[in-house]
Amino acid sequence: MAINTDQLIADLSDMIRCPSVNTFGGPAAEGAMADLFETQLRALGLEIGAHEVGPGRRNVWGTLKGAGEGPTVLLAGHLDTVGVDGYQSPFEPTVKDGNIYGRGSCDMKAGLAAYLEVVRQLAKLKMPLAGDLIIAGVVDEEHAMAGSRHFGLQGPKIDYAIVAEPTELKICPVHKGQFLATLRANGLAAHSSMPQNGRNAVYHMGTVLNELQIYAQSLSKRQPDPMCGAPSFSVGVIRGGDNACSVPDFCEIDVDRRTIPGETTASVITELEGVLDAALAKEPELNIEIGTPFLDLPPLDTKTDTAVMMAMTSACKAVISDATVETFPGSTDGPNYKCPTVICGPGRLAQCHSLNEYVSISQIEDAVRIYVHAIQKMQSTTAKES
Ligand SMILES: [Zn+2]
């Protein structure tokens, strides 16, 4: 398969030049990138769809229509990137020694550029598709995954998805889920010269933290999932009080609970409530609540016998003679697509949030070959899975 490398590099360079740094709850940052991706999809003759996810934040996708009897396959990627503090020339794409450098090159504009080349290759092959192929760019993966969550709920119905997050072309059908929430202890403010008149929320949180540490240790000893390992828990942020001379009337922590297949949001909340009950037994004045999770992503748990796994295994064997199946170490948009999904893309995960981000061009080319092969496989079977 002759890849149009010049076009691939030009597409990816245009994307790197278009900043889309996620502001983590701040103003929208993906607007220009969504416009660019839409223009690129339109130039390929795809039917364009878009949804406003929030002010100035748009998911965009292009559909290559199939005959209607095959599965709908989604190639998805996120439009946003992580920040650029301390990064020299993050938005100037540079090609050197077979790599392309710049913020977002690896995570994951390379994947989006690969998808565009997939459409060109399918056109060249003149292969009619049994079902639709949808190429989507979604917002906000790096923060709250609002884009993929919206796409999974409101976007077109998908049968199988491939997400080109950097895996060095390893096949990743599973990863842990992620539950992020704020726990807030409420106290009573008083002048610190008369602390007996107040209820110190920071002290109360101290009791909670001790119990949470015991809980975190107990999770590491649980029966691990064969692919995902043991679940985990970590406290990442603490905020509380106002100044040294006041008894603090609040203390908050942000927690990160990584889940494994079989665990649910409800089971996690029940466990946390149990931990808070243990803290309450030690500190009767404790008044604490678990806030609405700001990320609530189930584990990705795609089975080996799904059509997308079989297609990707066959494709990786054919193209790179290596069909290694691994657990993806982080979390991705994948579970939000609510269908059997495989994470497999060019670039190294270790590279992606660094201050010298790059991706191997030959790996992007192989990714294109893998996706084309996998689409051909899936579109030759008309069996849909629910
Ligand atoms: Zn990513």
CATH architecture of the largest domain: 3-Layer(aba) Sandwich
Shape: elongated
| Small molecules bound | zinc ion
The name of the CATH topology of the largest domain is Aminopeptidase
What is the H-and-E element order?
A: HHEEEEEHEHEEEEHEEEHEEEHEEHEH
Q: Which strands sit side by side, in order, in the main sheet?
A: 1-2-6-3-7-18
Biggest β-sheet: count, sense, barrel?
Answer: 6 strands, mixed
Strand content: 15-25%
Rounded to an integer, what's the Rg over CA atoms? 23 Å
Overall number of domains: 2
Could you walk me through the main structural features you see in this protein, from its secondary elements to its overall organization?
It contains nine helices and 19 strands. The chain has two domains: 5-175 and 300-380, 3-Layer(aba) Sandwich (Aminopeptidase); 177-296, Alpha-Beta Plaits (2-Layer Sandwich), CATH 3.30.70. It is α+β, with helices and mostly antiparallel strands. The strands form five sheets. The chain has a six-stranded mixed beta sheet with strand order 1-2-6-3-7-18, sandwiched between helices. Strands 9, 11, 13, 14 and 15 form a five-stranded antiparallel beta sheet that branches. Strands 4-5-19 form a three-stranded antiparallel beta sheet. A hairpin with a 2-residue loop joins strand 1 and strand 2. Helix 7 (307-320) crosses helix 9 (361-380). The longest helix has 21 residues, at 105-125. Residues 78, 107-108, 141, 165 line the site of zinc ion.
